[in-house]
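Changelog-adjacent note: as of this version, every example in the card shows the full chain rather than a window. The one below runs 411 residues end to end.
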Amino acid sequence: MDDSFLPEGADGGLLPAGLADSLPPQASREEALVWRLLSGFAAQGYELIKPPLVEFEETLLSGTGAAMRPHCFRLMDPVSQRMMGVRPDITPQVARIARTRLQHAPRPLRLCYAGEVLRVRGSQLRPARQFEQVGAELIGAASATSDAEVVALAASALESIGVAGLSVDLTVPTLVPAMADSMGLEPGRTRRLREALDRKDAAAVEAAMEGASPGAAAPFAALLRAAGPADKAMAALGRIALPPAALAERDRLAEVIALIRAALPELRLTVDPVEMRGFEYERGVSFTFFARRAAADPPECLSKGVDSHDGARINARQVHGDLGRGGRYAAAAEPATGFTLYMDSVVRALPAAEQPRRVYLPAGTPHDVARRLRQEGWITVAGLEPAADAAAEARRLGCLHRWSGAALVAA
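Full-length structure tokens:
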């Protein structure tokens, strides 16, 4: 549990599970990072929008938002007497804005956003139920170039704020369903198959396909073995006999990988062709961002149930949870792709912040001195009463320097 959660009975400071106060200096650091990310998006033509925190249920949870229904808090609007929902995700709101307020704007739309979301429950890797999302959506473009653009946009933004060892895990959530449909598998068998693939359990895949046509489990087992670094994974996928719909998905993935490599040749890419968990409304090439940590990090940082594949994907998942994810989806009748970054995970992936440049100004320090120091990048903390020991007072207030009357000195 995050150490900012207060223990039960702590002077009335108990908060519901999964909710926490964001305190100094973490709160200011996170917000500064948010604006750096948004500035990077804006530099590539993505315009900021600010959807409301609460919407009427029928609009918030329709279309793209329908998949988020189990995650949504609901409440009654005392004014209209209609049910409302607190947003569990911002992407469906962007889709709504695109089809309504911006329906006549030139396509493709490039939109970005930042804001808090609230979910009914957390997960093992992300126990927080309220957290900040930062993301971008490209609406009205169906090409592989648009898929590659959003991956490169997110990756470049994360690297620009100091995320090291970035890795992108690519998948196609529609690949397995396309294969199951081509085989005419009944819904119950398809559900068991998907559960087995989610667990990366080859024996369970065989059991789920028991009684089907001879050899029916083989291509799904081959998909499990194909996961790993992009080059090896795509070579393995090329050796699997796929039906036409699945073959088209594989070829699209190969094209997107080539385009990402052209833009960011050093970016680490992996492929997991059976990954579907967490992609509630994606309908094409999808992706998850991870950051690798040093080998000295404790093993409990590793995601559970992830195969090694030469150690590449385990190393890529050593930050607690993913940094963000995204992919192709349908924004009403329009093709769209985009991503969401989770700021709690992003902050954890960064090196420790440098000590802020705080200087203590004893009571009576001239205002022009304070203004000059702030112009030089210092954070000034003014004393309100004379202090007997200015150095001790500076240290008490978290200042490593103080104004001596003529110059800055160490506290």
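Structural remarks: The first strand starts at residue 47 and ends at 48.
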